[in-house]
Every structure is written in structure tokens, then in C-alpha cells.
Amino acid sequence: MAFGFAQAFRTFGKLTLAGAIGAGLAAGDVGAEQKTPSPGSAKGQFGAVSLPTQGSAQPIGFYAKGCMTGAVALPTDGPTWEAMRLSRNRRWGNPAMISLLERLSEDGAKYAGWPGLLVGDIAQPRGGPMFNGHASHQIGLDADVWFTPMPARRMSAKEREDLPFTTMLQKDKFLTVDPNVWTQSRARLLMLAASYPEVQRIFVNPAIKKKMCDTWTGDRTNLGKLRPEYGHDSHFHIRIKCPAGAAGCTPQAPVAAGDGCDKSLAWWFTPAPWAPPKPPNPGAKPPKPPREMMVSDLPKACASVLDAAAVASMQAATYGGPSAASALTAAPAAEPAADPDGTLPDVGPVPNDKPAMQ
Ligand SMILES: [Zn+2]
Q1: How many A from CA of 356 to the centre of ligand 1?
Q2: Phi/psi at 50 (nearest 5 deg)?
Q3: For residue 46, how far is its CA from the centre of ligand 1 (angstroms)?
């Protein structure tokens, strides 16, 4: 890891770039609104559907190009989780994803000293591309989990909209985890998530991956599942494998053997990933903007997924049944244990948007 702060900024020239990099890093795949998609676009079509299809749960296509049937919703509340940003209607996933989140939330409280999960975006009711924020999350097998622990109370729907993201990075340094914010309980939660055989990979900021490489003293067998990626500094992104029998699901190649604390990580600490795009030659034609993804670009079955009959209600398709669906208005769950690593840091600024790679 020869490239450090000084080296990077010698290369970049200006210290103001620290802010630009920091803002870019801070966003990840939880960004702000982008411009309105055209009516026939896959984003427009899948973003307009409010309920999943009836029938069996099937991921169709690939994580970054597909859709799904038979999704179920993560209940807004459980003993060890709270779903965030409810207005986005992205609590939907394959039952395998939803049950894994519930299990992680329980195991995290039991074994990692993590009081509970704040769960961010999973997928839209029928998956597909989204208006904002993600390239993947399209087949119900990806989910974002905040690095902020669940508070020891039930937040109102408004609080869940407004709670700012907290970056794990130091704002005035290049790719450095903030030692005043990062805790061992976060490290344990990540490794617990990586330990489940069905977890395919977990995206984290390169600085967080490096922190794990430098400090994790436990079993490193699953450390390679933590993959460095832009953003992902205020949340991590869990991707699970295609469930058994999901014939229409396109698997992703497994992560390379080893802990990933190698050249592939060192690359992130070079100027290459952060270099601005080269300016076009003067007089050259401006490049065409990338074409929007249309429904016809997705696997063929996704067009009929859009047309398929919907379930009767959100409650009917909530994982665990209608009683789970009413949890937000029900009595608060038992207070979870406090984070043993100490008091929570103040929340950080709301990050700027940056389109995610994953
Ligand atoms: Zn994500």
C-alpha cells in the first residue's frame, strides 16, 4: 500500500480534490434523484409498479439486469431491525434475501454486539432498474444495510426518511476510516454476514476493506467476500447467490480465492480509480449520452412480469404474514442492548449523489 495520502495528492495537485473524492465516496448507491426517465424506459416502467406479482418467487436475469416475480416485503419492524426510507417502496426481495436479513439482524445482536439493523434499499416490487441510486438491486438478491446501528427505540416513518447517513471515512483524508466512528462491532457484523454460505459478496468502501485487512484477527476465510467498491462508506451491500432451483437467475462468478488484501485492493489507493475522465479533443464530436435501458433490453420474461397480476395488498405479501406488516403501528419491540463499543457518533452530512458502479 505504497500510495498514501501524500502520494495521491501530489498526483492530483490540488487539496480541494479531497472534498470531491470524499463526496463521491460518501454517496455510494443511496444517491439523490436523477432526471426523469422516458416513459418506455425500464426504470420508468418498473418504478411505476407498486405491488409484486402473485406466484412463486423467481429472480430473472442478473443482479444488474433483470427483474423478479413473487417478491415479499421485509416487515418495517422486527425485534432486531427497522426498515428505512419507507417512501421509496424498496423493501421487496426474494424470500431468501429477506430471511437472511432477519437472521443477520438476530445473529448480529447475539454474536456481534450489534443492536439491530437499519435496512436500506432492497428492490422494487418487481425488481428492475431504479430511477436513482443503484445499478444492481434488480432481482431481489441485493440489500443495503446501514453502518449506523438501530437505535433503542422505534423511529417514526418521518425519522426513517430524514435520518442522515453517517460516513465511516475521515473527511479530510484520502480513503481513511475514521477511528472515532469505526468500531469492532461493525467489523464483526461484516464478517458475520460474510460467513453465511449463501452470501455471494459484500460491497464496502475500499477504506473499509483495508481497515478489515489490517485489523481483522479472527478467521479470514470469508474476508475475500468483502469487495472494495465506490461509495459504500455509510452502508454495506449484501449480495446473495441465486437460490436453489432459480433457473432464470444468472449467477455471478465467485470471488477469487484468498482474503482480497492484495493488488486488487492496492489499486484503489492509486490515482487511477479517481482520475477525472479525459477532456475530449477540441473539435471532436461530443460523445453520445449512454442510451437508457429499455424493458426490451432486460430478459424477455421481464415484459410479462410488468403485466402480471398483482398480489392483493402490501400486507398480503409481507414476509411473515399480515401481523408482521402492521408492526410499524404496533407496540415497540423490546429495547435492544446498547452498542458495547460505546456511544454513537454524531451523524455526518448527507452525501452528494454519485452513480454507483454496483
Ligand atoms: Zn446497494
Answers
A1: 8
A2: -105, -15
A3: 17
Tell me which residue of 75, 132, 83 sits closest to 99, measured CA to CA.
Answer: 75
Rounded to the nearest angstrom, the distance between the alpha carbon of 76 and the centre of ligand 1 is 18
CA atoms within 13 A on the CB side of 181: 21
Domains of the chain, with CATH numbers?
55-264+298-325 (3.30.1380.10)
How far, in Å, from the CA of 199 to the mean position of ligand 1?
A: 14
Dihedral of CA atoms 191, 195, 199, 200 in degrees, nearest 10, equals 80
C-alpha dihedral sign at 127, 132, 134, 136:
positive
Question: What predicted TM-score, i.e. pTM, was given to this entire model?
Answer: 0.82
The alpha carbon of 204 and the centre of ligand 1 are apart by a number of angstroms equal to 10
Distance 136 CA to ligand 1 centre (A): 7
Query: How many CB atoms within 10 Å of residue 157?
Result: 14
Per residue in 171-211, pLDDT tens?
Answer: 999 999 999 999 999 999 999 999 999 999 999 999 999 99
- Distance between Cα 150 and ligand 1 center (Å): 18
